[in-house]
Amino acid sequence: MSNSTLFYPQSTVTGDGAGIVSHAGLALVTRTAEVAGLPRLLSDALTPWRKDYATHDPGKIVLDLAVAMVGGADCAADLAVLRGRETVFGPVASDPTVSRLIATLADEPVAALAAIAGARAVARKTVWELAGEHAPNHRIDEHHPLVIDLDATLVTAHSEKQDAAPTYKRGFGFHPLLAFIDHGPGGTGEAAAGLLRAGNAGANTAADHITVLHRALAQIPGLCWRAGRKILIRTDSAGGTKGFLNYLHKRGLSYSCGIGMTPAMAAAVEVLPASVWTQAYNADGQPRDGAQVAELTGVLSLTGYPPGMRVIVRRERPHPGAQLRFTDTNGWRLTCFVTNSSRGQLADLEVRHRLRARCEDRIRAAKATGMTNLPYHDFTKNQIWLAITELATDLTAWTQMLALTGTDARTWEIKRLRLRLWATAARLARHARTRRLRYDQHHQWTPVLTAGLHRLEGYRTSR
Length: 463
Prior knowledge:
InterPro entries: Tnp_DDE_dom (IPR025668), Transpos_IS1380 (IPR047960)
Protein name: IS1380 family transposase
Shape: globular
Oligomer: single chain
Strand content: 15-25%
Organism: Gordonia crocea
Domain Transposase DDE: 5-457
Pfam family, one: DDE_Tnp_1_4
């Protein structure tokens, strides 16, 4: 009797296989791009940057980069994962060609970024129309608004790059400000807009928030200048500035913005009678032990803030071991936010504001989709890279919205999608002048892939 110490079966290895396509699961992403009309839109938008007699279309190069980012690329050289499989991904440009295009676009960053953003906006309109009741703007109103979350994040630079600077967390790099369209608890979210900034850019700069919000609103299909209360803007305390709040009021938008606790607010909390405090809720609507909410609007001086603004405070006993801040009083952890919503229980408004934490998930996904590394030295080139990252994030969300609706994969984050779907290989078979991708019938998630591809084919034939 022999006891083997090998955990895995041993096979003879050769390098003479044929007809195998790695990352064939990305066909779900490329089909989504086709359904959204992105190939034509990007090609038309980037026509001014196409050289005479060029072999590769700039729109195709940008879309290939976005697809590669969805698959895990974090630099232009990673485009090699698509190269060499023209029967699935078409002709893919070489690394020097990609670098030349990025440099050409970076020579006119304002126009190039506007062109890419314009193509995304038109494609988003198509996707939302096809998604129907699953689109984030389906039957929105003041009480069920479309939510746009704004937040900044830090991107580390590991070498000297233009406009990279020390950050407030004692790192070094960039401090982009981003806007995401929230899909709610049954989905993920889309990257509406982004603004690349130096690492030492201020967190609460109203002008930057206004710029990003303006770009984000331009991405919402059918939106006029005064969008009304059916659009809800959520931010952390960085967005709770007088300048930004007055801009939101001028635009007629709903808002729910964090605001830093001041000594005056802390003093007002101490004199609030016990009768004004109400039970806070968890996200599932159940009472949250040790947490209460109250309104401070009537006991504060709000000079300079927009009319109709309400100030709501939440107090909670901190978790064991957590340190209190200087604004916390009597053992209570205090947080505050402002809103112009006139209806709804305080606890419901507070839960709605706290759900902006979903934006952190969107940032994590964006960083895993090319934003962790801004690979170029020139600031304008990194601006182009960030725009392609936003496109890649949209592609992931649109694939989930159109192809994966009704499955658990609708809410999977990008790393799980890569592991289970995008990295799936397939055999390319040819018969009677047709090509067929044959996924492994024993792969656990092959039914999800094939059902998604068939659903996308239905969208294509119905248009």
